[in-house]
Amino acid sequence: MEAVIRTNGLTKRYNGRPVVDGLTFEVPRGAIFGFLGPNGAGKTTTFAMLCGFVRPSVGSATVLGRPLTDLPRDRMAALPQDARFHPERTLSDSLIFMGRLQGMDAARAQGEAARVLAAVDLAEAGKVRGKELSHGMAKRFGVAQAFLGTPELVLLDEPTEGLDPRNAHTVRQMIRAMSGRSTVLVSSHNLAEIEDLCDTAAILDRGRLVAQASIAELTGRNQQVLIQLGAAGSGPQAALATLPHVAGVEASPDGLRLRVTLRLAPGERAEVAITEAVGALIASGASLGTVVRGHSLEERFLELT
Amino acid sequence: MQTPLTRMFADAWQIARFDLGTAIRTRRAVVAIILYALGALATAVVLVKIEAAVGDEIQQIKAMASAQSPLTGDGASQLEEAISKLVGGDIDTARHLLGLPLVILGFFWMSLTFLPFLIVLVSHDIVNVEVRNRSARFVLLRSSRSALLIGKMISHGLLFLGVTVLSNLVLFGYAWYSLPHFQPGSAILLLLRIWLLTVPFGFCWLAFTALISALIDNGGIAMVVAGIGLIVLSMLSMSDAVGFLSPSHYKLGLWSPRLGPSLAGAAAYLGFGAMFLAGAWARVTWRDM
Question: Tell me, what's the pLDDT at B170?
Fold first, then answer.
């Protein structure tokens, strides 16, 4: 699959200390790609390098096939995490200015400004000046400017940080709506959000890439099932162990939780194995609480970082 | 189809328009206009009073200057001597200046003396404010660093051009109203010449300020360093050995009645301005934003 972002040993050092260290990863075209890492992992610095704000110390990258020194600015958009807007200008003025820089004529820039403001629930705030924005409004405005026009690639650094649940939901809906039209690289501390939104993710820790895989692979959705039982006993574990798609069963000390490792042949769907396991448990007389496919991204994240 | 260069200039113009609009909405333009207009008005009032008081003597000096005859009378010869000292002992230039309306002469002197300081005062954060609060990032997502710098230069340049034109009009109107001998026709031609010479002069100091602003992120420190830089360059210009390294060394050329020295002075300011701008560009291009 064609990669819209390709980095090769991307490194940024400040005072000799690497903040991003030899980062090599690819973002496939059309993906909603999650970028995860604890504070200080180098996510924002990586975004800044990919947007051309910060020069790499070593290494290289291409964005939409072009080097970082010659980015295709008319084909990409971004939400920088900590950039501020012109305090004295209204939101409409700023968006029209940005639209004009993107090559839109005045009428289209005006129309786009109104469209993106409405999309983030700021339709009534066009005349509000930058210095009058609350944190949430500023964040929504930042998201709005990233959705001006029809960029092929959108980089969003912490797009829902500090937003109330309703506005965070709106932003997630906007990101989902980009699926298929644009490639979106999104960083977030909200792991459930990444799990929900993204197809693929990369995990960074102390400037280094520690994992890059599909969300299904990272969460083991096709490798593992967690089962909560209503009552402990050896019967359920024995019933599962005999199944052809079960590679192993591990019980918690109290016997109420089972971690079932699946064994799937290439092309086999996990749903078949899960149905088989649930059927065997019911047949053994076990009472079921919950059945969860895979572990959470949070668990995987904590394992890796 | 836009080439990278035409795209850069188109972007720079958009950035300049937006920045100028912002300057007009903020204290920046107000401070510049008030300071300069007040300075112009104060200069006009003082010079008009002087011109009204010694108008007859000045008319006599003008007549002698235009006849290319030696000046006679203690007051006139002393004035000629004093002015020739101010312009590096150049008698021709001194006589030329004596032939100009005092009010315009004074205003030109004020422009050459105080405009650099006004530029430093108003434009010390021309680059670093955008870097410090990272608002430049919204522009750099859509445009080049060169367009950002050129756009800001155009915006500030237009602001100062507007301020000087406005101040000139204030001065012109006041002199016309107050002086019975004031000749608006010849005065406006002189003002046009002064404006033309002030453009490369102002460009040089704006580029110098942009360089300091690109090198120093802290706005206050950049202003102090640029102000000290102006004084140092002014002092350097007086040195016989290395004075030519300072733009201020070429200020006298701007006063000359002859086209050659005037153009040479303007070219020197353009050259220094281009060097300062190239330095600012190199810094803006390679630094982290």
Answer: 79
Residue A66's pLDDT band, with cuts at 50, 70 and 90, is very high
B17 vs A232, more confident: B17
User: Tell me: the pLDDT tens digits for A288-302?
Assistant: 888 887 777 777 777
Q: What's the total number of domains in chain A?
A: 2
pLDDT in tens, B112-171: 888 899 899 989 999 998 888 888 999 999 999 999 999 999 999 999 888 888 887 877
Shortest Cα distance, chain B CAs vs residue A102, angstroms: 6
Residues from chain B that touch A54, judged by Cβ atoms under 8 A, are: 288-289
The verdict on residue B162 lying in a domain is: yes
* Domain interval for residue B252: 4-52+102-286
Q: Which of A82, A88, A100 sits opposite B134 (nearest CB)?
A: A82
CA-based nearest distance A113→chain B, Å: 15
Please report the number of interchain residue pairs, chain A to chain B, with beta-carbon separation below 8 angstroms: 62
Which contacts (CB < 8 Å, 24+ apart) does range B126-130 have? B126/B152, B126/B153, B126/B156, B126/B206, B126/B209, B126/B210, B126/B213, B127/B152, B127/B210, B127/B213, B127/B214, B127/B280, B127/B284, B128/B213, B128/B214, B128/B216, B128/B217, B128/B218, B128/B219, B128/B222, B129/B219
Is residue A250 domain-shared with residue A205, that is, in the same domain? no
Gap between the Cα atoms of B16 and B28, Å rounded:
15
pTM of model > 0.90: no
Residues of chain A neighbouring B141 (CB-CB closer than 8 A): 51, 73, 76-78, 80
On chain A, the residues whose CB falls within 8 A of the CB of B133 are: 83-84
Task: Indicate if A232 and A211 belong to the same structural domain.
Answer: no
Q: Are residues A259 and A151 in the same domain?
A: no
Structure confidence at residue B70 (pLDDT): 53
Same structural domain for residues A44 and A131?
yes
A52–B140 CB contact, under 8 Å: yes
Q: Tell which of A164, A197, A216 closes a domain.
A: A216
CA dihedral sign of residues A8, A209, A202, A274: positive
List chain A residues with CB under 8 Å of B135.
83-86
* Chain B residues touching residue A84 (CB < 8 angstroms): 133-135
Contact A162, A139 (CB under 8 A): yes
| Cβ within 8 Å of residue B281, ≥6 positions away | B146, B149
Hey, are the CB atoms on B288 and A86 less than 8 Å from each other? no
Residue A135 has pLDDT above 90, yes or no: no
Cβ–Cβ contact B143 with A under 8 A? yes
